[in-house]
From TrEMBL:
It comes from the Eukaryota. Its cofactor is Cu(2+). Belongs to the polysaccharide monooxygenase AA9 family. This is lytic cellulose monooxygenase (C4-dehydrogenating). It holds the Pfam family AA9. It is found in: Secreted. Residues 20-206 form the Auxiliary Activity family 9 catalytic domain. Residues 1-19 form the signal peptide. Its EC number is 1.14.99.56. It comes from Podospora pseudocomata. Keywords: Carbohydrate metabolism, Cellulose degradation, Copper, Disulfide bond, Metal-binding, Monooxygenase, Oxidoreductase, Polysaccharide degradation, Secreted, Signal.
C-alpha cells in the first residue's frame, strides 16, 4: 500500500509539472543565450522550477519566486528598437494572454528588486478562438524609452475554469538600454497592485505605445 501511494504521489507531481512551463532563455543580437544567463532564475526547488505564481498580493509577481534579487544574473546591453526573444522550457500549455512589461532601475538593475513603476510594452492576445500558445515570443525594445537599466518582464496568464485563479508564469531579463529616446512611459503601475481579482481576466491595461 505504501509503495502504491508513493507511486501515485509521484505520478501526480510529474503530471502537474508537465503542465507547467518557464521562460528561461533570452535571445538578443541573433544569439540564443544559455538558460538563466540574462534571465533571473527563481528560487523554487528543481521539481517546481517551472511552477506558476497565483498570489496577487505577493512580490513574487514581479519576477517569480525569489526574483527580487539578481543571484548572479548578467545584464545584456541592447539598443532601443532591438529585437529580443524569450524562450520557454516547453511550449505554453494553458490558454491565455502573454504580456511584456519593463521597469527602470534607479541604478544598476542587478541591485533592483522591481519595486518601482512598471509599464506594458506589448501583448499577445487571442486570434478568434485561438491563443498564441508557443515556445518562444519575439518583440522589440521600445525606441522611445530613455537610456538606462531595466527589468524586462514577460508574463503568461494561464486561464483556467471559472472560479479557479489564473496562473502567472513570469520571468525577468536584465537589460541595459542605449540609444533610447526621451519619453516618460505612461501609464504605469506597481507590482503587486497592477492585478486585482476584480479585473476582467485578472488583467489590467497599462500599455505604452511608441
Amino acid at each position: 500500500m505504501k509503495s502504491i501511494l508513493a507511486l501515485t504521489t509521484a505520478l501526480l507531481a510529474t503530471t502537474g509539472v508537465q503542465a507547467h512551463y518557464i521562460f528561461q532563455q533570452f535571445t538578443s543580437g541573433g544569439t540564443k543565450h544559455a538558460a538563466w544567463k540574462y534571465v533571473r532564475k527563481n528560487s523554487n526547488p528543481a521539481w517546481l522550477q517551472n511552477g506558476p505564481v497565483t498570489d496577487l498580493s505577493s512580490t513574487d509577481l514581479r519576477c517569480n519566486v525569489g526574483g527580487q534579487v539578481s543571484n548572479g544574473t548578467e545584464t545584456v546591453t541592447m539598443k532601443a528598437g532591438d529585437e529580443f526573444t524569450f524562450t520557454l522550457d516547453t511550449a505554453v500549455y494553458h490558454a491565455g494572454p502573454v504580456s511584456l512589461y519593463m521597469s527602470k532601475a534607479p541604478g544598476l538593475v542587478k541591485d533592483y528588486d522591481g519595486s518601482g513603476q512598471w509599464f506594458k510594452i506589448y501583448d499577445w492576445g487571442p486570434s478568434g478562438n485561438s491563443w498564441p500558445m508557443r515556445i518562444s515570443y519575439t518583440s522589440n525594445i521600445p525606441r522611445c524609452i530613455p537610456d538606462g537599466e531595466y527589468l524586462l518582464r514577460i508574463q503568461q496568464l494561464g486561464l483556467h475554469n471559472p472560479g479557479a485563479p489564473p496562473q502567472f508564469y513570469i520571468s525577468c531579463a536584465q537589460v541595459k538600454v542605449t540609444n533610447g529616446g526621451s519619453t516618460n512611459p505612461s501609464p504605469t503601475a506597481l507590482i503587486p497592485g497592477a492585478f486585482k481579482s476584480t479585473d476582467p481576466g485578472y488583467n489590467v491595461n497599462v500599455s505604452l505605445y511608441c
